[in-house]
Design a protein that fits this description.
The radius of gyration is 31 Å and the shape is globular. Helix 6 packs antiparallel against helix 7 and helix 14 runs antiparallel to helix 15. 61% of the residues lie in helices and 6% in strands. The C terminus is likely disordered. The relative contact order is 0.10. It is mainly alpha-helical. It comes from Cannabis sativa. Keywords: Membrane, Transmembrane, Transmembrane helix. Pfam families: Anoctamin.
Length: 669
């Protein structure tokens, strides 16, 4: 077997944190828990580097390619081959598999799963329990018990987390975070190789969305600069129709780009598959898998259909109950708060006070959203949910209640424009401020606590304690988690929620203030770079998540497009009917007809634009055909081989019984 080419020294990608200990006696080395853990890591083929920090000790882990390959075989990971077929990985046939865009054999997500498989499969395989020691205490490592989990439960292992690759990280800082020459250009392939599919897809979506915003931003800026006078009633409907067509085309062409990216990264993902069914182990969310159902209810074929139907409808009833609970909570708790804000805003005369009220409101809504999200997560954990991202719907929709109040009750374009501009400016500034300052403040506070504790231990306040090791600095940084908790989501939940809120504001009230698209365009240019800086410098390296599309967020965007058709038609009707007569005159009739036509276009345009490019579809069909042919040939070989073996067995039986081949064989009674 030809050995694969690999780096002389693999990069350290996993960090394990253990307490900093006093000098361990030589006679206790064989039983010291940390020393045993290090020996077990090395037995697996991992490279271990020990770093002594200010307060803790750190074990940096790296895996040679062969070690990762053996783990991939054990995990039965499927990878794309050079003939386009996904097959189970075999280390002896590594040359048959396609490499990643950066030249590595395994993606970051695959490597992380291999690390997890290796370090959490260290078990006591001896015939009796093993006595381990730590700082004078003894603990028993039971037969078949996971060593890492045991040490975690005893607080000997404090944390296990992914490490940044310094060479790749610095390269991304220069080519991505600090690259301002092309406003929306991003090294998507490098982001995919370093962070995995989910984060790469998010930044590809953000970049495409920002580029597409250039057209409505220029159109809206033109409407703001030029005074059309009496033609305003004609220009605004044209702008509105253009924006709706723009949004419809964006959602369809994003699906095509997403499919092209997955094809380029050699990731199989069937079109139309549910988002809860994901790569690497078929993650079904909290939905019970067929294997779990069979284990619970048995394998009686007569009951199989009934069991699956019961599980399906029971889960749907739970989701309906939880959705009803969330909606009623919004109506009973948040709606009065929203209406009080809207009414107070209307009665205030000072613009400065209005701006301050909006700032306080947005700070408050941050906490309300987090509380609602955490409650939703708790509810979702107890239901059979096909797609965990569906909980984002309620978090997005409720944020527009206050603006609907302004639009429906007061019918004032001036007031509505003031609310929109204040919300956009304050929310974007507030989000960027919180996103970039809170991680740094948390990191600084952790360093301050350690310094203070060490000075108290030494009893000497003089001298500054420096954190020199990179791994300790990464450990002190906060993890990239969602504000609603990290049980089901990572930090991308908040980033997508911010985008969805922005999209809803600029789309649903486009006719009231067309200039909002220009504000959104400028904000997103900054958002791309600040999000990159945040990921590369302020957070730990995120744990890769097995998601290959934007999931339910695209459904939310499409729902907001439908809502924007209704709200903008209502705004145009109010603008046309200044006196409030509500008579079906030619202008109002045209607006109503336009609404129905746009809704028809929205649902019919998906038929016109395919969700995947022709070359992607052709490659997928070719791969499927090749896989079918290969399986057919293998099956035929197996069948023919079995028949030959059966015939040889017959002939051998004849020879042993001295029966002529021309005579029939007597059955053995």
């Amino acid at each position: 077997m030809k050995e694969p080419e690999e780096e002389e020294q693999p990069a350290f990608e996993i960090g394990v944190v253990v307490p900093k200990r006093n000098n361990v006696k030589a006679e206790d080395l064989n039983f010291d828990s940390v020393e045993v853990l290090v020996r077990e890591f090395r037995k697996l083929g991992l490279i271990v580097e020990r770093v002594i920090g200010v307060a803790d000790e750190f074990l940096k882990l790296a895996a040679p390619l062969e070690t990762l390959g053996r783990a991939a075989v054990s995990l039965q990971i499927k990878k794309r081959t050079h003939i386009g077929v996904d097959l189970q990985f075999e280390w002896e046939e590594f040359e048959a598999f396609v490499r990643q865009p950066d030249g590595s054999l395994f993606s970051w997500s695959e490597r992380f799963h291999c690390y997890q498989h290796l370090i959490y499969r260290i078990e006591n395989k001896s015939q009796s329990a093993i006595i381990l020691k730590h700082d004078g205490k003894e603990l028993q490592w039971e037969i078949g018990e996971c060593l890492l989990q045991k040490l975690k439960s005893e607080s000997i292992v404090k944390d296990v987390f992914p490490l940044h690759d310094e060479i790749k990280r610095k390269k991304l800082i220069h080519s991505w975070a600090l690259h301002w020459r092309d406003f929306t250009r991003q090294p998507i392939d490098e982001i995919y190789s370093y962070y995995g599919t989910k984060i790469a897809v998010y930044f590809a979506f953000l970049g495409m969305y920002t580029r597409w915003l250039l057209f409505p931003a220029f159109f809206g800026l033109t409407l703001q600069i030029i005074d059309f006078g009496s033609l305003q009633l004609l220009v605004l409907p044209i702008f509105f129709i253009s924006i709706i067509l723009w949004a419809i085309m964006f959602s369809q062409f994003w699906k095509r780009k997403n499919a092209a990216l997955l094809a380029r990264w050699q990731i199989s993902y069937p079109i139309g598959a549910d988002d809860g069914c994901k790569i690497l182990g078929m993650e079904w969310g909290s939905l019970q898998s067929p294997i779990e159902i069979i284990r619970k209810w048995g394998t009686d074929n007569t009951k199989e259909k009934e069991v699956f139907q019961r599980n399906e409808w029971f889960g749907r009833i739970k989701r309906f109950r939880n959705d009803a609970f969330v909606i009623l909570s919004i109506i009973c708790l948040q709606l009065p708060f929203e209406l009080a804000y809207a009414h107070t805003y209307e009665v205030m005369e000072s613009d400065l006070l209005k701006f301050g009220l909006t700032t306080i409101y947005l700070f408050a809504i941050q906490y309300v959203t987090q509380i609602g999200g955490k409650i939703s997560v708790k509810l979702i954990m107890h239901e059979n949910n096909e797609n965990t991202e569906k909980r984002a719907d309620s978090l997005v929709y409720k944020s527009y209640i206050g603006i609907f109040y302004h639009a429906l009750l007061h019918r004032s374009f001036l007031t509505l424009r003031q609310v929109l501009i204040q919300r956009l400016l304050v929310s974007e500034v507030l989000e960027n401020l919180l996103e970039n300052s809170l991680p740094y403040l948390k990191y600084s506070y952790k360093k301050y606590r350690i310094r203070r504790k060490k000075k108290q231990e030494k009893g000497s306040p003089c001298g500054k304690i420096l954190f020199s090791s990179r791994v300790e600095k990464e450990y002190l940084k906060p993890s990239y988690s969602a504000s609603i908790g990290d049980e089901l989501e990572d930090g991308l939940f908040d980033d997508f929620l911010e985008l969805a809120l922005q999209f809803g504001l600029i789309m649903m009230f486009a006719c009231a203030f067309p200039l909002t698209f220009a504000f959104a365009f400028l904000n997103n240019i900054t958002e791309i770079r600040t999000d990159a800086v945040k990921l590369l410098t302020m957070f730990r390296r995120p744990v890769p998540r097995a998601a290959v599309t934007v999931g339910a967020w695209l459904n939310i965007f499409q729902f907001l497009v439908v809502m924007s058709i209704c709200t903008n038609c209502a705004l145009l009707a109010w603008l046309y009917d200044q006196e409030g007569k509500w008579k079906i005159e030619p202008g109002l009739a045209a607006i109503l007809i336009m609404e129905h036509v746009l809704l028809l276009i929205k649902f019919g345009f998906s038929r016109f634009v395919p969700e995947e490019p022709a070359w992607v579809k052709a490659n997928r069909m070719k791969n499927a055909t090749q896989a079918q042919n290969m399986c057919s040939k293998q099956l035929l070989r197996t069948m023919s081989g079995g028949e030959r073996a059966f015939a040889q067995g017959k002939n051998s039986n004849r020879g042993s019984k001295n029966v002529p081949s021309s005579e029939p064989i007597q059955e053995d009674l």
